[in-house]
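Hi there,

I know you've been waiting on this one. I reran it after we fixed the sequence typo, so this is the corrected version. Both the input and the resulting structure follow.
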Amino acid sequence: MKHLFIIIALLLPLSISAKNPKFFKKARPIQLTVIAYDKAGQMQQGQGYFLNEEGDVLVEYNLLKNAVKVKAVDTNGKEYTLARIKGANSLYNIARLSCPEAKKSAVMPLLTEAITTGTAVYVMPVSSPDKNAECLVDTISKIETFEEGHSYYPLTSKIDERLSGAPVFTEKGDLIGSVQLAADKDKQHGFIIAATYANQLSISAVDVNKYDLRSLPMPKAIPADESQATTFLYLLNKQDTLIYRANVEDFVEAFPTSSTGYIQLAELDARQGHYKEAEQ
């Protein structure tokens, strides 16, 4: 019996360590509770996290379907505004949003090396101030590829719906990607979409009328290239004056020496009867 107690005592710390790996405290600040508001002010809540040093936030596409405003709250209770959609894919249920207030946000390194079937992974618990929350430890059941070599990883265990969108890490603390639920809710084993794929999602001029973007009412980020951004403006739906104005103002801020943005603003003000503003 004495030997049994010794064995149990030795195993307990190992079990706790397995669920709360060394990187846990460092990774916790990247997690966010994301709150999306529709036109009526109704809200929907989900998970998200800071993806890169630019402060971009990765969220689930489905959370944004009716959203006109999106906020995020970190584990310390700090609130952020998520301003523009920088890329989205409805099939893989992910969207990357800008967060201007978080240029120096906490980030974790993205996984860049190959992992193998059977690798242990750590699903972060639901974003909250709870310091005793534990990771879900799972294993990679197989490795699949999509869209020019990007990876997704089916998991072994059933995944609680509340963990959908949560970040997943290797034992070293490299960010693998986001939890996605299986399409078959009876199985719910879930899988991981690679963070490297989400990080390269972007918007070009021709994307403005693609279904995945048109279906989301939030403003989109204009392309970084001036020529692409100019075409983007001309292709925008000008009937949605709020989004159109937001994007024209983005253009003026990004390219202050270009006359295009000022002309578009003047024309918009004239159409809306704001003649004094149009003359400026």
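Quick highlight: The first helix runs from residue 2 to 19.

Best,
R. S.
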